[in-house]
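Hi W., the xanthosine-5'-monophosphate complex you wanted:
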Amino acid sequence: KIVILDFGSQTTQLIGRRVRELNTYCEIVPFNKFPFGDKSVKGVILSGSPFSVNDENAFKIDLHEIRRNYPVLGICYGAQWIAQSSDGTVDKSDSREYGRAHLSVKETGDLLLGNVPQQSQVWMSHGDTIVRIPDNFSVIASTEEVEIAAYKVKDEPTWGVQFHPEVFHTEQGNKILDNFLAICGCRKDWTPASFIEATVADLKETLGGDKVILALSGGVDSSVVAVLLNKAIGKNLTCIFVNHGLLRKNEFETVLENYEHLGLNVIGVDARERFYKELAGVTDPERKRKIIGKGFIDVFDEEAHKLTAIKWLAQGTIYPDIIESLSITGTVIKSHHNVGGLPEKMNLKLCEPLKLLFKDEVRKIGLELGMKPHLIYRHPFPGPGLGIRILGDITPEKVRIAQDADDIFISNLRAAGLYDKVWQAGAILLPVQSVGVMGDERTYENTVALRAVTSTDAMTADWAHLPYEFLAKVSSEIINKVKGVNRVVYDISSKPPATIEWE
Ligand code: XMP
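Structure:
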């Protein structure tokens, strides 16, 4: 495997995804947690960082041991740190670059730049520049502004690149990373099929004849875990799918049907009444989230207790949930977990077979397992569901309105071929009534806001620029068909400063 040492860059996860796309397993670890002694490490990539190497509190480590043992590729800050810690000079300079730049290869025989054309576009994002390299370093590529855009350490498999090979706008980025993997001697045999084979074998061995329980959400992660476990242990897996009454229209029935079709052993629990009762009159978004979260755990726990001899709780945790993130304000390192509360309460062992995968890999595994694209490419949908898309208090009547409006929006997105072009979409029921006129009658009814965004990771998002004609069609269909709505608006806020959900 490849180890990616994280110095806090926003693109560290992207480096990981690119390496995985090249069928090579990699792990992202905090810069100060190198797995010395791990025999499976074949090479090391040093990420960028929000710091300057000249900052007092910059993340720094001694690279001697790592450079002695493995091929190393430093990216941006990583390249600067290798240079500076070898007696080179890094400085704030006039020759900083942001965005596109043109790379010219200076040393054609270099392995890292093998088959990279003489000229290509790269993506830069740096305030500091390496202004001097030690004598045993040689410049292998430059841009107009930056002489030392890429270097190689002589007689040592260590390289540094000032640009970002992991970003899409670096045309030869994949080639460069691929060259580095070849230098490391990676076999490139990390594929969906090999993952499934190894994981199923591993699950069989770890779980043996034990019984496992899993909470399905209808989303891709938990669904893929279910199919994978079903393949490994069959009927020893019991899935529980809770209807908290805040799912999309007909979602409970269709998803349940899909699951049964996949041969899963699923218990569907209709707990709508209970959730509506507990949510009655509650308007604060965080209180609603807490009530829904706790209600979910309680229902799940009750169902689990009806079963006997359950030993494991399976979860759809994925890699971004567990990568330890570096706090930029200090060196405190915290870890994230997907679902709080359940494992502690139930006293079960945790089984998280997808915890080392990125989302796009989970999708590939799902397709390889024969799951329908319809199930694999669903938009993300929040756990509390429509509970946070009905602003203010929740009533069954409001749920009906929100479901009907959402259903019209989503069906139209699918019909217009726009569904896969947006990251997620939905209708929000606002606690706002306004005057309208239908026929000869004055109306005083609800407002629905449509929200659709484009994004790659939900951390930032832009409002989707949907065609006016499309919005017009959805608007009139909602107002004509959904009783209780006389006005539709479209949300044109980006994240930040807004968020994707309204609550
Ligand atoms: P925001 O609104 O923070 O949403 O921009 C980012 C992503 O997270 C989803 N989201 C949630 N998912 N429980 C969830 O499981 C929640 O309470 C929750 N709130 C937001 C949101 O749909 C988007 O994909």
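The domain at 192-376 is CATH 3.40.50.620 (Rossmann fold).

W.
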